């Protein structure tokens, strides 16, 4: 879908690489600009998770891209990169605000050279404002945005989500913005600057509860474990006789039949939110009487909205997850089999493939420089001077 679109990527960590991988999966030619030491994610992985010498954190977000390893502080490197960007459709960067401007790759300068360029900046808080220079990281934004404070029961501390959901949503918003700008360019002939940041992504994830709050509704965390300040019961994770089960938005009339308990039918519709803790306690008592498996069969029969509370072992073996081909496996040189998440969208029933594996550092330096008109001798000289790093297979 994006064949013929060239993307120059100055990205590291998760938000940036994940955004560029989405574009690369769709056929864009993504050139990842790395220092001779390599991008941060090559040498870091959350739980020190490596397959062979390869960081899982790097492998999960860099397929279908090329690696150009070059010293950004070198004047020779700058002239090479400007030549590359002059012919690019998109530049995407996730450096601290102002960093690329100081290196001579700011939007104003590059847009003057290449008016069709779509320039996307991904940051923690935005390119301006009082928090501009603060470190932007998923957990910090979960806290700042109110997400952690909204999560958990009344007697529990603020609770973080167990994944980097803000990083990933920021990546999706960045990719979305780029695609919108490319479509706009088809109509106007002119590129633009796209900005996505983790703070906006964190707020966007909470579009529903924050909108309730902005319009005067003040909810409290539940004392009985309802999963949201703003929902009636049932809406939460409940104990069963042998584990847990999740029950969500289901009419009390249906619960009355499922639990064989007429008490639920005595609750007036306009009292359901005000009496939600009382209702939730009664649901909890019923659920404690049978096993999870028994409730799953019973709820299926009565059309109650429910789900098992899966750990990752159950998730990776889930029938629907497997049917959706949610995982991608490939053999990585020197490491062996690696499994990651596949592209999350299907197009005419198909998922984009891993056309190329996450690249070795500088794997494409020679080929990219060759397309810019440099000959072998010139490339060798640049490598000897430390301006570029060339991967030797």
From TrEMBL:
Keyword RNA-binding carried by entry: no
Any single GO molecular-function term of the entry would be: CoA-transferase activity
Pfam families from the entry?
CoA_transf_3 (PF02515)
Sorted alphabetically, the keyword list is:
Transferase
What the entry lists under SUPFAM superfamilies is as follows:
CoA-transferase family III (CaiB/BaiF)
Superkingdom of the source species: Bacteria
The record ties this protein, via PANTHER family, to: BLL6097 PROTEIN, SUCCINATE--HYDROXYMETHYLGLUTARATE COA-TRANSFERASE
Q: What is this protein called?
A: CAIB/BAIF family protein
